Amino acid sequence: MDVTLLGTGAPAGLPRPDCPCAACAAAQGEDTRAATALLVDGALLLDLTPGAAFAAARAGHSLAGVRQVLLSHPHDGPAVEVPAGLPQPGRVPDGRELALLTGHRVRAVALDAPGTGYAVTGPDGGRLLYVPPGGAPAGLEAPAEPYDLVLADVVGRPDALARLRAVGAAGPTTDVVAVHLDHDVPPGRELARRLTAAGARAVPDGTTLAVGSYEDVPDVPRRTLVLGGARSGKSVEAERRLESFPDVLYVATGGSRGGDTEWAARVGAHRERRPGTWRTAETCDLVPLLKDEGPPLLIDCLSLWLTDAMDAVGAWDDAEWADGGERALRDRVRELTEAVRTTRRTLVAVSNEVGSGIVPATASGRRYRDELGRLNAAFAAECEQVLLVVAGQALVLRG
Length: 399
Prior knowledge:
Order of helices and strands: EHEEHEEEEEEHEHEEHEHEHEHHEHEE
Radius of gyration: 25 Å
Number of helices: 10
Largest sheet: 7 strands, mixed
């Protein structure tokens, strides 16, 4: 079964008409996208969008063989006239299945938002799932057979992919292609970077995909370190990297700090930002978590872990530091980085980058700065990907 993407953009396309934003200004060449529409084996058209016939011709196809046109959008898609020769667009009720004379079977998938998703099985047994913008599958049951191809709003609704992964409907060999792409993310390398972290990819308009071909499925980095200064956006970047995965364990190393209202407000803001399916553990005992099997870990942050470790070895006192404290801290850091090296869990860790600022006025402050620099370097050496976040922009240092 082959799928030709006549468009891969949001309903308004990319760039949006008359939009002056930076993402729209940068959307040129292959980064321009018409509203998403899919042509399946030349026989089934999912979503009728403006210029579909011309888009098919540019991709080397014709709509003459289309036997069924199905709409997914809650508002029946962009308002267009039906080209001559095409059947009238329709919609399959949720849960119902449609059999085409071409041998394709189409099942309507219920969503948690207005609109209809479609699961298509080809004559060769290939399976794809197409989800409209702003929606995620609802009522999924495990275990589910994995789809060969998923086309969904990965940027706008990453939780849709998380739900599919939770029940097994999206597996390691599922090709996840982002569609309905809008101006929320700058096109080009930044879009590719974010999608790769989610195990997904984007393709230009007019691309034909062979359902069941896995060679282009990106590998998700197993270990990632996200560095940045205060309010740089490093925690948001770290959370974004795992929001398309289910059952993430968020490891908060800062504790509750009873009575500190400012800290409580920060913790509350973080929790509101995280998906409801994530669990939270407040601990600095990271090594057992890294050694255990389990869902992805998000550790926020290493700088607070270091504070706790330095407290434990008496690193703030010069005498204790000289009398075994330094050696004890080195052992703790070595134990942690060795656990990172051998972990089988997907891991994203956050840490502060403090070496570029003002030199601390106290000896203990300088000691903390130096030890955090050493910890960051040792931890980064065990990670496939290292990012530095500046002003909300992620710079890839490794990977």
